[in-house]
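Structure, all two chains, one model.
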Amino acid sequence: MIKVKQLNKYFGDLHVLKNINFSFQEGKTTVILGSSGSGKSTLLRCINMLETPTDGSIYYRNEIIDPVKNIKLIRQKIGMVFQSFNLFSNMTVIENVTYALKVVKKMPNEEAINTALVLLKRVGISDKKDAYPSKLSGGQKQRVAIARALAMNPEVILFDEPTSALDPEMVSEVLEVMKTLTHTGLTNIIVSHEMGFAKEVADYIIYMDDGMIIEEGPKEDFFKKPKTKRAQDFLQKIL
Amino acid sequence: MLTIFNFHAISEWIPYISKGVGYTLLIALLASIFGVVLGIILTLMSRHKILKKFSYFYIDIFRGTPVILQLSMVYFAFPTLINSILRDVFFLDVTFMLSAFLAAIITFSLNSGAYISEIIRSGINSVDKGEIEAARALGVSNFHIYKDIILPIAFKNSFPALMNEFITLVKESSIVSVIGLQDLMRRSQIVTSQTYMYFEPLIIVGIIYYVVVKILTLLSRQIESRLQYD
């Protein structure tokens, strides 16, 4: 569904992604693992062109993603959930969810609100619909952010360390919501440090180190018998 | 008997002095409106490759020189320059004149534009990059990102500084007395020349300034608390 070909990314002289090749499968959940600085967030951000690749290309359903020509349309199909939530601070919860529906999809107000209410209920936060983000806990903010991404009815959702900025007691409420999104036909690509969660929901694992994909494979293979020494060391440290 | 404050003598002049507050407020108000327009233009220019040099130069000059110099330039030097050009280059027998009021508005607009541009710039920089990214990731256009996210948040964040600039204008506009505009300060000088009282008119003017600034400060706090998103 999303195909990454010969992708390279430099930040100045720093080579952060080194010749990445990978295909993300439709309807599957892929978890990208790796220590900090391994390039996993950058890879995720290249998919929707929040970072422009230095070299190489990314295909969405066999269509090359271009940072100018088709990016707006493709971004409507690829939702994103951020580590620091990034809710619009000048809008209430419901406005956050309806905003892109109204200005991007040109949906009439009433329809947008109905769509948003259904989603807010789904992530369990309808009672806060008129609150501003500053009044929400981290876990609540992230659930709103998930509802905002879902509102666009995307085919893919990118999760960039969605629980890393949360207090430990709030991690599970977000993971619970994310769990409901797997096996629904939605393609999930998740950068995460939550090993237990990865073990539970992932179909596929990518392990990255030093800007390269060191190992990839179905979850069972990766966790039971990692092929490479680096992945074995990583798992030993984490588990 | 020592009289420190001769209220009886000054009281008949109070209505005359008070009329100056109109000039003071009008100059501050018009200058801040034009200043905001100019400030936005300068901020937009500072995002352009070539025009930004002009924007920086402009801000540098207006922040680097005293207002009284700028006012004298606009009121005394500039019309003289225009007149010599009209006479010696175009051989025209006309005289270009600028009223003191217009000169004051022009000077304070040009001056506050430089300061307001800095305020707007830092307001825009204060908007969380993450929120902008989130909007981009949803496919929102740059126009809408500016209109619905960056500008409202930047305005809210820079409102206290904008209000502060307005209050500064109210006080600094007292300099227009040097070009003879009958604002509060000038009126107190006129009263002094008529009555030989120094202390009383200045105290009256001081009280008027203080009350006006106090009202504006309280008003701005009111609006500020209403602008909070919570």
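Chain B has a mean pLDDT of 91.
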